[in-house]
Write a structure and sequence with these properties.
The chain is of the alpha+beta class and 606 residues long. The protein contains 19 helices and eleven strands.
């Protein structure tokens, strides 16, 4: 019952008008083939694949789920055929290096592709999606032999990859990892241990699965300082890719989950499985951050995908569902009632979904340009500068966009009313599927501690100040516009944005001072601080979209209503969404004593 149409117009508006992707690509000769004509063709072909092949499997895959039988996992009907079409279409190789069989196109285009496939069918998209992190990790930290053996086949899609961090006794606290790695004396290691919650850990889509595994060497230091990273294939392979015997990696079970039921979440047992060290000894967590950042941005994208799918279907329903009359008089007198889209509360939910989807997409596409810069960095300093920018915004994207994606999905269910609660309409599935995004790759609370504790307070706000300078430079440039009419129109966005940025910096300083006398301040304020940060960052991108829309309207354009709609959406965001920062400011600055003063034994008298 669900429908999906790739939002090509919105995507092109961002890449062409707001973020100037083609000027960005011209900085790198490696991206010279990413011309407007080629990109346009890619967008439309990916849209066809997503709409026609993946969407029809979304609800059926949820209903059927994955099948587990004595260690083997079978994906739902149609998944394997769709994966083969994905490979045949060259989608797996789109944005990976030419040297290893990729097409050499920018990673930012790969992000656009991932948005379309993920919105159409997130569970299916997770199978190839996990491979991107494995590829990036091997490409960044692997040696030449590892790249030659693993990268080409991962890029081709004949093998897929996973990330194996979590164990039964530890999730976020990876210092508790117990999986062992015993050296064999020939450069290989025997890996023994159990990993849980491994997305795409076992399936029938490819002939081999390459696991990126955290484990401890003998006599390694305790805690996170003693973790190393290993490549462990499911099936042993010769250097030419010829597959051999089983590598003693078995699937003990797959989880029965609330959502994303068509994505196999596996318990994997490693029983003296042969692995290779990737990166330096005891530096595994640092190397794994390459994978984790990729995964966190991908998870942030899930928030946008959930919101977009919920919005598109909510809009269709709200235009068709008849209930009561408009408070300002009949809008459709020939009907027995007006469609529910005429009611302000329904309109508020739809507009909230719309600005979350389009604002979130802008945040992702902005970040995708930074990923391009990292991939093309010519010096360590260039890489570090871009990586610092990415490191600052990643926890905001991951937590803020997934929380808002879940909110948007719930608005969709509410718009559908009772039908939203019924499986056949698909809205409850979006809600269930969206919910996991706030949990995996680090919960909202973990991302918030990373942002406030590590990225703000430990660096004395350097990354925040750098980002703030960028935003304030945009505000200053728009306030000096020679076109006075244009300037007055933009002031409705520029002044609130400038004030929000100044307050953001001030609150971070005040929290830093308060934390010096009470460390609980960081934990009590962090989630509200992150959400505050997210609303301010999204406001920056809505201001940019409004600016680009005004610029387009000054010239000759075919679809003037499209750009007018962007401006009206920006107005809604600034009047209805950005003010949420006021309550967040109050709660994040509140004394943590009300959280901590009640003794844990007095929380319940059962």
């Amino acid at each position: 019952m669900l429908s999906y149409k790739a939002p090509i117009a919105d995507i092109k508006f961002l890449i062409e008008d707001v973020f100037k992707y083609y000027d960005h690509y011209k900085k790198y000769e490696e991206f010279e083939e990413a011309t407007p004509d080629l990109v346009d063709a890619i967008l439309h072909e990916c849209a066809k694949f997503s709409e026609n092949e993946l969407l029809p499997l979304y609800q059926s895959g949820d209903k059927e789920g994955c099948h587990f039988d004595n260690g083997k996992v079978t994906t739902p009907k149609g998944f394997k055929e769709a994966y083969q079409q994905y490979i045949d279409g060259g989608w797996s190789a789109l944005s990976h290096p030419l040297a290893h069989g990729g097409q050499g196109l920018p990673p930012s285009l790969g992000m656009v592709q991932s948005e379309m496939t993920g919105t159409a069918n997130w569970s299916w998209a997770m199978y190839p999606g996990l491979s991107h992190g494995a590829m990036n990790t091997i490409n960044t930290h692997g040696n030449d032999k590892q790249k030659e053996l693993y990268l080409e086949r991962l890029i081709q899609g004949s093998w897929t990859g996973t990330m194996c961090l979590t164990e039964p006794q530890c999730g976020t606290d990876l210092g508790q990892v117990k999986t062992k790695a015993e050296p064999n004396g020939d450069g290989t290691y025997n890996i023994t241990g159990t990993k849980i919650f491994i997305s795409a850990g076992e399936h029938d889509l490819t002939e081999n699965i390459i696991h990126i595994v955290l484990a401890r060497l003998p006599d390694a230091p305790q805690g996170t300082r003693g973790i190393s990273l290993f490549i462990v294939p499911k099936i042993k392979a010769e250097q030419d890719g010829t597959l051999g015997e089983s590598n003693h990696v078995t699937c003990g079970s797959i989880e029965e989950k609330m959502g994303i039921k068509a994505s196999a979440t596996a318990v994997l047992n490693f029983d003296n499985a042969v692995g290779e060290l990737i990166g330096p000894e005891n530096k595994g967590l640092e190397c794994m951050f390459t994978f984790m950042n990729t995964a966190r941005i991908g998870t942030a994208l899930q928030g946008v995908c959930s919101s977009e799918l919920a919005f598109q279907n909510s809009l269709i329903y709200a235009k068709e569902r008849l209930s009561m009359r408009s408070l300002t008089g009949k809008k459709y007198p020939e009907q027995v009632a007006d469609p529910i889209i005429v009611h302000p509360d329904v309109r508020k939910m739809l507009m909230t979904q719309k600005v979350i989807s389009e604002g979130g997409r802008a945040m992702i596409y902005y970040t995708a340009k930074i990923v391009d810069d990292i991939s093309m960095a010519k010096s360590e300093q260039e890489r570090k500068t871009a990586d610092d920018r990415l490191g600052f915004i990643t926890p905001i994207l991951k937590a803020f966009l997934t929380e808002l994606g879940s909110e948007s999905a719930n608005h969709g269910l509410q718009i559908f009313g009772g039908h939203g609660y019924i499986k056949e309409w698909g809205m409850e599935q979006i809600v269930r599927d969206a919910r996991i995004s706030t949990l995996y790759e680090g919960t909202t609370g973990i991302q918030a501690l990373d942002l406030l504790g590590r990225k703000i307070l430990l660096t004395r706000g350097k990354s925040l100040n750098d980002f703030s300078k960028e935003v304030l430079s945009f505000c200053k440039n728009k306030s000096l516009l020679s076109n006075n009419l244009h300037k007055r129109k933009m002031n409705r966005f520029i002044w609130p944005l400038s004030k929000a940025i100044a307050n953001w910096q001030q609150y971070s300083m005040r929290l830093g001072f308060k934390a010096q006398s009470n460390r609980d301040v960081v934990g009590s304020a962090s989630v509200d601080f992150l959400m505050y940060s997210g609303y301010v960052v999204m406001a920056y991108f809505w201001a940019q979209m409004a600016q680009s829309a005004y610029e387009k309207l000054e010239g000759e354009v075919d679809n003037r209503d499209f750009y007018r709609a962007k401006i009206k959406s920006a107005e809604f965001y600034f009047e209805r969404m950005l003010p949420r920062t006021k309550s967040l400011a109050a709660t994040m600055m509140a004394d943590p004593k009300t959280l901590m003063q009640l003794d844990q034994d007095l929380m319940s008298f059962l």
